[in-house]
Amino acid sequence: MDVAHADRHACAVSTATASLTTTLSTAARNAWAISPLGEGVEQYDGLPATVLSDAPHRRLSRYDRSTPATAARPVLLVPPLAVSARCFDLRPGQSLAAHLVAGGRSAYLVDYGAIGFADRAMGFETWIDDILPTAIHAVMADHDAEAVDLVGWSLGGTLSLLTAAAHPDLPIGSLTAFGTPIDYSRIPAVQPLIAADRLIGSRAMVVPTAVLGGVPRHLVRASYRAMAPRRELTKAVHLARHLLDTEALARTTAIDDFIGEMPGYPGRAYHQIHTRLMARNELTSGVVNLSRDRAVHLDAIKAPVLFVGSETDNIADGPAVRAGVDVVPGARYAAADGLSHLGLVAGPRAAELSWAAMDDFLAEVAEELLV
Q1: Cβ distance 72 to 145 under 8 Å?
Q2: Which residues are within 8 A (CB) of 161 and not within 5 positions of it... i.e. 6 or more apart?
Q3: Is the same domain home to 114 and 161?
């Protein structure tokens, strides 16, 4: 072996050794980071935001901007019940809030905080008559706007729809509902509950939650995980296969952290969800009976409405969401197929699918104001 060849061989061995060392180091570092003793592969404290008010169950924040907003109307992000408000700011690249800010909009978030036994009397009325109208007026005052664009996810969209219907004169410029189910008969996951309700009755079905004051946070978290059994069963294998892919690990652990922060459902609100939305499927009729003497009519909604759904959403699939165009006057539907339920607002492909549909809708609504 000549000297030049020997040098090349030694260099190749050295490069391979260095590459192997780097690979093993990365794998070991990531394995430790995702272990129970680790601190995670990514530290994300969320977008900088200013808290405008911090009353119980209605904390209102404005995401900070380095330059003035170019969009005339602000956006209020409305999370669902029993879900962490970080759904709109999950992590870098998966933040609807960051997308809105980067697009020149002033973005606000209402956060309900922790829900406990003491909150068992909170029902839909609490949100549609108090929490959301108060937030809308506060956003208008802070932004000096004439109307607010609402963007809700899942039951956050339901709360937004009911608010717009119950108070049609509220200054709501538009309403975007991501993954908001309207026809619960089209959701496979809730059919066992509906069947049980028909067998033993709604009163018996809600006895446990009445005793507990709602659905405890641990049960909510377990139920959410059960909605995606394949993910849960294969998660360990997925993590092992992607020990060298820090980005993939960051996405997975961010979702796990998000699920781990889910609060519970207040008793009255859960009873309304079970009896009115699931068992009686009242949203499809366009009339939701909040109580014996109060009904909310969806045809009273004046604001333009966009429903965004996905055929691959295992919690509220496309047909369940698309049904909204049949009950809300002038509503339209945009398909973002290929995304999961959370993926609609926080998926890696949301920017090109669901967020793009929202952007087009908001731009169209803004243009209509100028005509």
Answers
A1: yes
A2: 152, 175, 177, 180, 298, 301, 305, 324, 328
A3: yes
pTM above 0.90, yes or no: no
Q: How far apart are CA 296 and CA 286, in angstroms?
A: 8
| CA pair distance 217, 336, nearest whole angstrom | 29
The residue-averaged pLDDT of 260-287 equals 90
- CA 85/CA 324 separation, integer angstroms: 24
For residue 145, being part of any structural domain is answered with yes
| Interval 148-192: pLDDT, tens | 999 999 999 999 999 999 999 999 999 999 999 999 999 988 888
Same domain, 32 and 74: no
In a domain, 44, yes or no: no
Contact 164, 175 (CB under 8 A): yes
Rg (Cα) of the chain, in Å, rounded? 23
Instruction: Determine how β-strand 265-266 pairs with β-strand 214-215.
Output: antiparallel
* Cα end-to-end span (Å), the chain: 81
Q: What is the pLDDT of residues 309-343, one digit of tens each?
A: 999 998 999 999 999 999 999 999 999 999 999 99
Q: What is the DSSP letter of 91?
A: B
Structure-token pair, residue 193: 């509950």
Asked if residue 34 and residue 114 are part of one domain, the reply reads no
- Same domain (yes/no): 20, 106: no
> Are 72 and 205 members of one domain?
yes
Query: CB atoms < 10 A from the CB of 74, how many?
Result: 23
Range of the structural domain that residue 3 is part of:
1-39
Task: Clarify whether residues 6 and 155 are in a common domain.
Answer: no
Residues near 80 by beta carbon (within 8 Å), at least 6 away in sequence: 87, 152, 153, 154, 155, 156, 158, 159
Domain membership flag for residue 89: yes
Tokens 């009950």, residue located:
327
